[in-house]
Fold these 3 entries.
Entry 1:
Amino acid sequence: MSEKVLMKVEAISKIYQMGEVTVNALKDIDLEIYQGEFVVILGPSGSGKSTLLNVLGGMDLPTEGKVFMEDQEITGYNDKKLTAYRREKVGFVFQFYNLMANLTARENVELATEICKGALQIDEVLEAVGLGDRKDHFPAQMSGGEQQRVAIARAVAKNPALLLCDEPTGALDFKTGIKILTLLKEINKKYNKTVVIITHNVPIGAMADRVIKMRSGGIIETQINDNPIHPEGIEW
Amino acid sequence: MKKLDVRLLRLIKNSKGQFISIAVIIILALTVFVSFNMMRDNLDNTIAHYYDITNYGDVFVEVTRIPGNAIENLYDIEGIEMAQGRVSNDVPLRVEDPNEKVRVRVVSLPQEEYIVNDLYTIEGRSLQENPRTAVVLQQFSDARSINIGDQITPYIAGRDYPLDIIGIVGSPEYIYLMENEQSLLPAPERFGVIYVTEEFAQSAFGFQGSYNQVVIKIQEEHLNKIDTIVEDIEDQLDRYGVRRVTKREDQLSHSMMMEEVEQLDQMSTAIPLLFLIVAAIIINIMLSRIVKNDRMSIGVMKALGYGNRAILAHYVKFSLAIGLVAAIFSSFFSIWLSQVFTNLYIQFMNIPLLQMDIYYIYFIYGILLTSIFCVVSGLMGARNVIKIMPADSMRPEAPKAGGRILLEKITFLWQRISFSWKMVIRNILRNKRRAAFLVLGIALTYGITMVPVFMASVWGNLFTIHYGEFQTMEYNIDFAKPMNHNAIRELTQILEVDHIEPKVEIPFELRNGWRKKNVSVIGIPQDTAFYNFKSPSGTPIVVPRDGIILTEGLGKILGVEIGEEIVLKNFIPDREDTTILVEGMTQQHLGTNAYMNIDTLNHVLGERDMITGVMMNSEDQVVLKLQDVKNISQVQSVEDMMNSFLEFMDMIIYSVGIMMLFGGILGFAIVYNTTIISISERTMEFSSLRVMGFDKKEIYKMISRENGLMTMLGILLGVPIAYGMCYGVVSAFATDLYSIPLIIEPRSYGVAAIATIVFVTVAQLATIKKIYRLNFIDALKNRVS
């Protein structure tokens, strides 16, 4: 982990209009994420963590405030530039994997890599997530854990600066969840990727370099772990 | 291959039923577009080429008698390239069965090198000097199995003339072989044309050194002044008793052929357009459904960095793929269909040179047209891709606002509807736009099905109205030359007659200012029992004492109204033209005529008690007994007309079948696709019902009820649409020669409804698999597309 700032978030707020209700999803948040860091954002549902992740990943724009990626302000981007940002800089892992049902594991990864520069070797990445022999299977033929590995491979193979994971273990059983977390940790180390995980599962925080706790759209606490534990030591 | 394209191919594979059904509609559209356009060009070009090589005339003049040297004088008129005289008369032909009435038109051919209206020799030799030889028109020789070397015997002026057939020919004048405007249909086994030497015709008909017809060719650069030239010709030939001057555009075969070309032209636009629009709407609905289903996938694509354009293109390629696959198949089909059509034309018409040229430009136009339709409908259908925000798409969609429907507020009614029907009605109203499309689609199917059903009954109606209501005589007898009224008495001595009336039928040129038209004016007794004139609104019209009754179409051509005067220009030498008051407009579906009181007409002609024929009802063997009677040129019986009509029905049934198939395919595609989409949209709902204990049959029954209700509504809406379509067909088919009565029989509505229900049911059955294969556990578990 270095002291180099990868992303910088300045005073962002996000207000939604859901039907007749106005939701203050994010309230005046400041945040920095460092290169190579493993960050866990903790919070109950409705705390605004998903919204924050979406803003970081260029999937959503804040109502107010600025977001910088490597000194570039992405909040000023138009749709086209935002698309390019997602393409080159960010890898997403979703709670429900969100694979393309009619593409095989390998094709799902290729779908992501064929539009970006400097992608990693697909087979190597699939090997690294432990799917070397399952790469020609369709999502429906794989277990949840395997599907999530494909999703991680899809995000990693793009060789993004930032890996954003939205409840990556949320749909998995404990054992598989730990395996996925171990994999993310390995990727963090092996490829020196910045990984941001959002979860409501408090014990996961123990493996992070830094834990950011959120509630009601604001950061209530930031905790630095000098000695993050190995995921296998986590229990819930 | 790009992974998005791989995904596309698998998407297509998974929805192949829809893909194929839409492709079939586009294949139909394109096939009709390409082949009808090619056929029109082929027919048009071939006819032009045929006219060219046979030196087809521009003006045809019928006179009482004209000597050869008078024809030479025609060259004084500027613009006349060639003028040739000929003798032409219709006579009976001797055939084995004495009850069979066969007539031939005996036409003389000049012994010159360069002939106007030359013949195209198909088999055998061309006509030589031997006066006892003849060549015969192909349609006639085919229909009567006449071969080279056979002998045929026309009966001319009381004598048999056996002639040796030495050749079989085609003529530009008889591509479409009909005896006259009143014939309705070609009947080549009962009417034919034979060509004989000038020497033979002149001596047999008593026209030594003279002719009764002049065929004129006009120099090309003077064709724009044809009307002035025709007037000059009329003036110059006036003293030879001009009976009729016909320009090429009014010539029977030519105008029928041009009608055919025109119809091909209209069909080549109307049918493809209708089918492409339907296909475009289905594509639109289908793609918008797929995009909705793929909401999360689209979000993922966007998260991965795919732009709107790439994702839109992904879906538009789906519709484009349908279009391109259809284009490939239709290319083969249109060549095949053109071939079939060409063969039909060759079989039913006499165009010896007709061949099928392929015009590739129409393939290109067709593919371009389809591509545009597919891209536009694809973009319209997939446009919501742009609206999908990657962040939102990860969350399940908020349930749509539900509310009470209007019907529910009418509690009295609503309470009487069973629960399952309530569900059906709510479901229909849940997606009003699609329900509207389904109803409209079924209505359209109903309309398209109605057109052939209507057309099938049209000819019958045309026949019964013209020969059963408008004119009721059983026989129409024409004399070879004008006779005195006493001829009636003579006839009643030969035949047992129930009722007989005299008639005078004489060609006139009717004029109103610059508008003019050559027609037969028929003089009948004022108290005629054989004609029932009716105004378009249905009011009976009595034969006026002094005025004239025009057919409705003729009134339009001349631009006159009742109460206005027109000029009767007769073709009798040195006779003044007469002005006459239009006193009535009658509906007449077959042919164009004008009617007058027989005495008034005689007065106009400067005659007394002259008749040119009779009309009568008789139980006697009229044809047989009049066989050898001198001075009778033709005996037309309604029964003959009926027979030729029945033969024609075979061809009608064939084309009715094809049209029905078109309607069926359309209906199938519309119902199949909307049902499949509706099922896929409600997978979750059906799964919930399954979990609750509904069985597959019950769910399927619900969908069937929805479609059933929609079919009923569709058919109701289809009634005015069908009427409109039939009206369109009627207006498109209306010509000088005939107009189709717009009468849709109650039975036709029923037949079309049954056909529509069959199409819908077949489509409905085709979707049953989707419900039975529905894996409800998976559907409930998996919220991810």
Entry 2:
Amino acid sequence: MTATTPERGLPAHLVDFVQALRRHHVDVGPGETVDAAAVMAEIDLLRREQLREGLAAALLRRSGQRQTFDALFELWWPLGQGAALGEVALPYSEDGSVDVDALRDLLAELLVDGDTAALSELARAVVDGLGALGAGRGPGSGGSGGEGRDGQGGPPSGFSSYQALNSVKPETLLARVLAELRTRRQADAADSPFAEEVARRETRARIAEFRRMVQGETTRRGSEIRGREAAARTGVRRQAEQTDFLSAGADTLADLRRRVAPLGRHLATRLAARRRRAHRGPIDMRRTLRRSMSTGGVPVNLVHRRPRPGRPELVLLCDVSGSVAGFSHFTMMLVQALREQFSRIRIFCFVDGCVEVTDLFTPGADLAGILTEVHSRRGLVAWSGHSDYGRAFERFADRWPDAVTDRSSLLVLGDARTNHQDPGLGVLGAVVARARHAHWLNPEPQRQWGTGDSAAIEYGRVMPMHECRTAAQLAGVVGGLLPV
Amino acid sequence: MGSDATGRTTFFDSVDDVLARLGEVGYLASTAVATTVFLADRLGKPLLVEGPAGVGKTELARAVAEATHAGLVRLQCYEGIDEARALYEWNHAKQLLRIQASQGQDWDATRDDVFSEEFLLTRPLLTAIRRDEPTVLLVDETDKADVEVEGLLLEVLGDFQVTVPELGTITATQRPFTLLTSNATRELSEALKRRCLFLHLDFPDAELERRIVASRVPQLGEALAEELVRIIGVLRGLDLRKAPSVSETIDWARTLVALGLDTLDDDAVRRSLGVVLKHRADLVKASSELRLN
């Protein structure tokens, strides 16, 4: 399909693409690859968007993978070779250099109109004209189409979105675009802060979109020079699991993930099995009648309906302060695994304040991103930024009194180091008393419990505490938790 | 209606055909939706549609059925659904009556008699497999069902056949076009996902959403519809508990028509925002962040 793959054919190219996905930790099995090939046989390959959607349908299994897929798709099935310019051309001044002021005028105009197609064409032109690095850089190196570049110097040694965006500075257009929108609006409606705010946010989103377009185009052009593989390594954002939170090597993390993921399901089935044999439900007429057939239709043995396997409710309270930073990724991984198994789960994070972060854990979400997001939530840090369990529990009990009920299991993840503050045993005790089960997972070795500012011993009296430093220990804890 | 290499009848000829025919029955599809529907039809694989509530997952199945004049068989999943509700069960009461009515008859004859079609209650999955006419099978909210039901679905959707011990194996004469929906409250098992094509149905882009509003609520003016979609887009950018989806956009458009409003000024938004945002916290947040107060 592209200049670099002719002799090996389309199937080989598809396999290449699949391998690139796997390198970015999108698990694609051979079955899916075969599906993808079947898709390519059915679809009109000249319709790029259809090919993209078709391959995504066959290869992806969760929504969080789409971003990686799109980035790699752009590299393996590029829009075209070279500048691939559309109808929107860069304005040039008389001396042959790009007229940045006129360009900014043009960009402002497109932002006001919100014309996405034209914006993406402009992004391509901007990268071509302003983003080129090295030999080919110079007045009109992009020209309008291919001829300009051939005439001047050599080809560029690379492309830089930083350089391109730095000369256009799209952010600084915000005020201008807003002013323009305001005059348009005033023609037919009274001005209002609400309309202003909507316009501001919309424009900001469009500018961010334009930046993304420029960055995407830079990656595409760069890949032609450096090769796809190199571009994929640096240009495609990594998926969650391999971002290094801490010193653990990639292999360790992968191993950790393999071990943690099944634990969520394990815990879920344990909880379900426990409830199923809990107690009898009302009489099941159907099954009673069926059994009565052996006694000639006289219902001798009554059959009770099995209690509905209600869903387990899980409440997680996670310490994310600095002292447990190394444990955090571990916590997040476990939380993510649990999130995928439980539909009724609420996740709270605390330092010395407490926030609910259930919404962040969507399937396939980026764990590193989640952690950053958690830390930027208002209310997580109330005072000093050092963990204060007492205050955090108090706030939790105050703000979400209904979170823990007699149907929920409570899991606390943290090192129980209170910085010599009040451990808040009373508040925690009340919460634990309400919960059906409560367990504390502590990442510190047991012999250090109770030393220094650790309140582990005291907490251990309120709820069972388990040492949980490695994946193996965690497996043991989950296996032993909630015996069937 | 054409047929594929194996002689199975297919519904659609091309992606554009899907777009056009779904459009005729009032479902405006994106390229992603049209492509995956076309492929699911051509490859004979179930289509798993995942996405937030209210983006038209269930509606898609209805539209496909209507566009292809196929019958829609729907299995609504819920907590605790089991084989007897999803697949089939024997009509015990009727079987009892039959046995009692035939007092004194030969046992073999009675046994053969009570385990016959007459006493079989077919549930959605078996119904869909036994139908001779073109069929769209919708398994709604698959994530609400328990893990054991996924095993059942695997068996049925893998080969499109069901074994009833007393009757033998029933194989689909016409593979139904199968659509599974999920709100992703829990991850479905890898095995089930592998059998399906996957479609993540997200909020449509502004252009498509404008067209949807225009087709569903034509009474709303074009300018107003555009304004509405813009505001919805901004609301989705806020960090809300439940971002408004397409169904809320349409509800809002209908509300504006019902209230007889022809401009979306602050007051109109303030009065009707409750239609779009269903959580009180979201309302408060949106009002303060968008300076509605």
Entry 3:
Amino acid sequence: MGLTLPSDGEIAEVPAVSPNWLTTRLDFLVNWGRANSLWPMPFGTACCAIEFMATAAGRFDISRFGMERMSFSPRQADVLICAGRLPFKLAPIIRRVWDQMPQPKWAISMGACASTGGIFDTYAMVQGIDTIIPVDVYVPGCPPRPEGLMYGIMLLQKKIKGETMADPSLRQELLVNDQGFFVPPAKIDEISEPFGNSVHQTRSA
Amino acid sequence: MTAVAPGLSPSVEALRAAFGSAVLRSAVSCGDSIVWVDRDRAHEVLAWLKNTPGQEFNYLTDITAVDYRDPGQPLEVSYQLRSLGRKVDLRVKVPLDKAKPLTVDSVFDLWRGADWLEREVFDMFGVTFAGHPDLRRILMWDTYAEGHPLRKDFPLRGNFTRAEQTRQALAANPEAHYSMEELSIADAFNELPDDMKRRLLEGQRGELR
Amino acid sequence: MSTRTVEMALATPGLDDRGRPSRLPLGVGTAVDDDLGAEHMLVNIGPQHPATHGVLRLVLELEGETVKRCIPHIGYLHSGFEKLGEYRHYNQIVPLTDRTDYLSPMANNVCLALAAEKLMGIEITERCQVLRVIACEMSRVISHLVWLGTTGIDLGAFTPFLWSFYQRERIYNLQEAWTGARLTTSLTRIGGMMADVPDGWEAGLRDFTATFTKTLDEVDTMFTRNSIWCGRTQGVGVLTADEAINYSLSGPMLRASGVDYDVRKDRPYLGYETYDFDVPVGEHGDIYDRYRVRLEEMYQSNRILEQALDRLARLKGAPLNTDDHRVILPPKGRAMSDMEAMIHHFKQVMEGVPAPAGEAYLGVENPKGELGYYFVADGTAKPVRWRIRPPSFINLACLPKLCEGALLSDVIAINASVDIVMGEIDR
């Protein structure tokens, strides 16, 4: 039974496993475990980080989702929460943090600025972090309320629970060129037009 | 201007008496006293304002610059001064002709608080402050090639396309953001990883403009 | 070779005649052994580090565990606020100000409105002034509460974080009832406010002011005489009054060094001179004094809030917005029924409010220090230049000076004591 978890770089060697009783039961167990003990890596930059702190504090209490263990080291983290705007100067940093996180990993883009650039359609600002790293859940709002972030977290948990190890492409990160792009340059220009990312965004989970 | 505008700070008349033609003009706008001084004597004027008894503008509130929409109008560096003891304000502006190199003397020796403020004006407007000990970009990265963002000829979305900006951002090595000053800390140089040493020796750090 | 003198309190510090913990130098001042200094080490902290309060990056040159040089790198959150402001009408800049110092959005809104009103020569009503004072002081409280919570975490105390965030949530509820948003309030408009407070709101704020100081008392009990807290903060990151002025510091940083300068007292705006409050001033200029100053400022803000609430009750039914039709939109009912009013509404929204050519600088006492907005106008509806005088940017510039000679672990405490917010530093 080729039950080796497909990891980055070894994808081609993993034999395709067709879903059967054992893998679906194992999937359920693994996903249940993963979804309920996500260790977030809070990449808090701006206003959203304050709402993220409010989510972690007493009233909203993120630990109800098994997420109170903030992992400030990317190497022990499961989910990167980009809370706040991302300037170009910070883009290589978040990319490095993302690359340092081991699989399986997910990303939540919290807030309008992280998802689309928000009101900052300026020279300094990345128009949506999905041009830098792959994103699983976009949480809208400026900033999102803690309830909004929690809804995003629950969506992510739902997504994780639907994953199967029979699909090796889930852990694949396909670069479109050798400059580290996940999205083709022409596409970046397209979605970065004024109001671009917010109207073209169809990749939400 | 011959008649004194109502509400003008008495410091302006004192400046005129002390510096004569170096004081170009003065005005009152929204209750703020503004005095324009010649670039060559700007440092002297500011030092006089800080140290002369009776003036004592000992607190530098802000340094900034203004690029006007009219391209013919000079760029102005603006010093917002305050006397904590006398509780009065004065704004000193230094016009810089855009056809000539944008240079003004640094006031770092008068107020240490000018350090980052001057670096920011340098970064955003390209004004060089002569005598500043560590004049390099502060908000944008050292190798930023698009220009000086707050100039009026700089478009809001930058000079490059988004794809090019993204490419440059992804190509940037975060370690390369160490400044030469940091890397040249003599005793630490030998401890650096080889690739950083190599980069340093190759001078791979981007030109300050 | 530099000698480093550390002032430390005893484990059970005595009290001086003013009831404050006394500082007994234990004579720890020892010359660092020359042999240890042979190797200098370069340590990088940030930009993604939980203790740098955002995306600040510090490069430290260490000799043993002593910091020889600290070089901060900023700009990792540079968003182009000032450039963006040149493309916006004056009222459209208000939402931008929420996002600069996002720990005290309402105070920024107030400063922007005041600066634009100074530029346009507009008088505001008394009720509007009182509401703006309430907005400023609420902001001061929530900003200092974040400072208290996060600094506590940085120095190893988690509980104050939960306490202060509980109180913050109470203010957030009030903010939300007033403005519709927890954080990005966009409260003010030129010549008035976005909205009046809803019915019964004052009772909520009264309830807050009546009970909120209990939390401060608890923090006071827990920290002020705590030997760990005193040991970590007293005599660390010291700045003298002259240095503080020379570095252009403002706010609690300046006052902790013993300079009695508060914009609310020295260049009063919003009628602050008519309120009865004290400005706490430190004397040692260390982290401990900054903590004491900020803690006391919250008590004083509470006093101001109570007085403002009394005035608000007296001004019930008084007009909120100025009657200057240049800047204030006609009432919605008239705009929907009267052609002239509708055209006026349309023109004002689409074309903006032109400001006369000129320039104005206005500084207010924000929680972090003196926040100044400097407008240069050329007669159009958009400013030629919108400059933010960012208090935390200028306060942070003295970090290399504060960290020089400190221990590595003190750098975190010193950085926390500056009370920075990266959104405002990088803009």
